[in-house]
Amino acid sequence: MTTFSDDDLRCRLDSVLQTATSEGVVYIRRSDGREFVLRSVDRTRSPLDLGFVDVRPTREEVVQAVREGRERDYEPRRE
User: Fold this and answer.
1) Starting from the edge strand earliest in sequence, which strands make up the sheet with 35-39, in order?
2) What domain range is 28 assigned to?
3) pTM for the whole thing?
4) Average of pLDDT values for 32-61?
């Protein structure tokens, strides 16, 4: 657990961020005693990336889905 003062943060932001990246989290303590947590976030993957789902619908399933879509009653958009 690495703790920096708020003065350290002001003077050495790059070093504090690098420490958060390597350790995952750093703590920042203000002069009035309050503490804050700075956490590194890994954004290498999109939160929408769900991977591949192997679904192989039959011809009949595709035709049925298209027919159901065409038979739906759609309400016009109100703009």
Assistant:
1) 3-5, 25-29, 35-39
2) 1-41
3) 0.48
4) 84
